[in-house]
Amino acid sequence: KYFNEYLTAIVVSLLSISYSSLYCYVSPTLPILLSEGSPIEVTQVEASWIASLMSLGALVGSIPAGFLINSVGRKYTLIIAVIPMLVSCILKLTSTTVIHMYASRILAGLGMGITYATISLYLAEISSTKIRGSIVIISSIMTRLGILIVFTVSPYLSFYTLPWVLISFPLLFLITFIFMPESPHYLLAKDRESEAKKSLQWLRKTDSVKEEIEMIKLTITKVTENQSSWSQVFTKGNQNSFKFFFALATCTQFCGQQVVILYSHTIFGQVNGFISSEASVIVIAGIQLLSTIFSSVSIDRLGRRPLILVSSFGCSLCMTIIGVYFYLQLNNFDVAFITWLPLFSTILFLIFYNIGMATVSMAIGAEIFSINVKAYAFAIESVYESFLQFGITKLFPLWAAAHGIYVPFWMFAAVTGILFIYFWVYLPETKLKPLPQILEEMEMSKNLEFNFLKKCGHV
Question: Rounded to two decimals, what is the model's pTM?
């Protein structure tokens, strides 16, 4: 019954493998670039720019995403996104200077920014209500798969051979996704009902889609009474949605996952552990994939809210423990008997992160905005997350060098802990609710503080 929906989700999520493999590419290659005999001469400062410039590119790529999503459609926006990724891979194959590396990272970021602003929206709009959560999370599963592939094969490939692996994913996406359907929501919003009907019939594997077509049309009619524009994004009806969206985005970035992925080889290189840094990061990538798969099968059973609460609390706890280890090590305490602690805590952190913040936050974001502002909302959120990514990845090595590596980990723990309290107080449940019902509840719940007090019986 749901085969075509899952097939479409897997094919479009090849783009997630593409940008995640390009993103984590620097983790195994930065130690090579900073070593003697490097194929490209790179300083420590230049290395930090190589690590962070993809996030800066994503910030720039996110800006036109809202316009593209509404003008050329979800499908062709994603096809546009793959082009800079392909060029980035070609540059990696031919790089001879640090400028080439900079350009490669920026181009990969452009594609990532457009993809990130579009893919969850596309997946939410093609999926049935009963499996919407698990469909949206397929993108996150493929993101983790891309990281696992890079971490697994990189020890056995040279600096100039690894990009051949990276380029295969965007090429495969381009060849297969061209045959996938456009979002029926977008087609109906553009008065292309016959195309929307064909798209929905193929996705649902049935000719009986009249009722769903009418429901989508009713939703579009309600929301398009206000024209789709940037000004509509900031109306009172969307304020609650943005509060949740920005809180989830802040927690996703400030929990520390960017640092763990980008600098994992460097971090574990500082730990005199019982396994090598290369083996550690492969274990980490595998754990990420497995925990994301768990999230995909549990999101529509356990609900969004419980997973976010467990995830944010667990991430805060693990970042605290990792910070304690590095504090003890830096202050010359004997840590020989707990060399296993950083790897164990990082594995726990990634389990907590991937069962909630990495996956469920995307599903919630795809559910809480009306169709006339959803594209702009995702573009704004993508710009915001890219800005945080850039700042964190650029500043982490500077914070660690200036104040000790434990300081940023404790900062991540504090921010995530505060946001856990916010989610516990305010975050609603959207499990198995039709999109029109969720939008109506967002519209009716404009005052978060009032609703919390009312829930507690104080007003």
Answer: 0.74
